[in-house]
């Protein structure tokens, strides 16, 4: 019995044989993927933490991160080559963002996403983005306007704080859509914006990258991205941003409405056996948070009528942006909204007849948009701010 207890004690005292000790690993917090224009090889730039530089006790004078670039024919190769150039084994599980160059994305992301999925080293919740008009590595290195000392943390916060005019997509969302039937992926876009004042360059999350299957085919601007987000409900739920509308009370004055929760639905319709059309229904809640006009509304009836008029203006604005987004997607022959997915759910027989040529069908399919904007503003019962005579 004593011998058995001794054996059990030794087993309890042993550590995990495959545990990664912190002192042995190099924690990667950001990745950028480019391609060598001469050789066609992948270039992977990894941003590693330097924990000692961030220590609250005895920080070193070194920069808080290290940038390492490696080249190779495949993604697994470049990920493992990093271990040959630094003194710690690369650990990708805490990676926050993957930036992919436009050139790489246009050739297709299947090889990249397949490597991440099979290797299990990169987590599915990591943010995925496309670098527009700039190399992916360059974006990962820009430090302007960073409160965080590590660029990858700054980029992670951009995605966390995104509003309705940008897209925030993680690796899992991309997997789901690229492998799904009747829907194509959309990924967030990072760009460099030059300014006339210090720090002279900024990193901006703006617009969306449109894919046809796994290949990049074009971009949506901020207005078109808002239209996309209204249809798909993929914008942030708590902070969807704000839009400005004509005040209607005074010329050249505006009101600002804060967008809140939205509910949308795509309704397919099939007539005469093969005539397909779609209706997009959008129900958007909002509140009026800014009023430039100084005209006072004296009664509840006036307030109600005014909010209805502003709502009508907002509905026209939302409808316009949705149509711009759908028309652009039809130009790309890329069903990013899930029209085909909705058709498959509603009428699988028709979908099975159309699915092999859905890109061409989607490009020509007619649609209508119905928007209801519900604006609330108890603040209108108060007199407007205006200077005293």
Automatic annotation (TrEMBL):
Q: How does it sit in the membrane?
A: Lipid-anchor
Principal localisation: membrane
Q: Does the keyword Signal apply?
A: yes
Q: Organism's domain of life?
A: Bacteria
Which of UniProt's keywords are assigned here?
Germination, Lipoprotein, Membrane, Palmitate, Signal
Q: Which segments constitute the Spore germination GerAC-like C-terminal domain? A: 206-379
Q: Which residues form the Spore germination protein N-terminal domain?
A: 18-191
Respond yes or no to whether keyword Cell inner membrane is given for this record: no
A cellular component term, taken from the record's GO annotations: membrane
| Single GO biological process annotation from the record | spore germination
Location in the cell reads:
Membrane
**Member of which family?**
Belongs to the GerABKC lipoprotein family.
Protein name according to UniProt: Uncharacterized protein
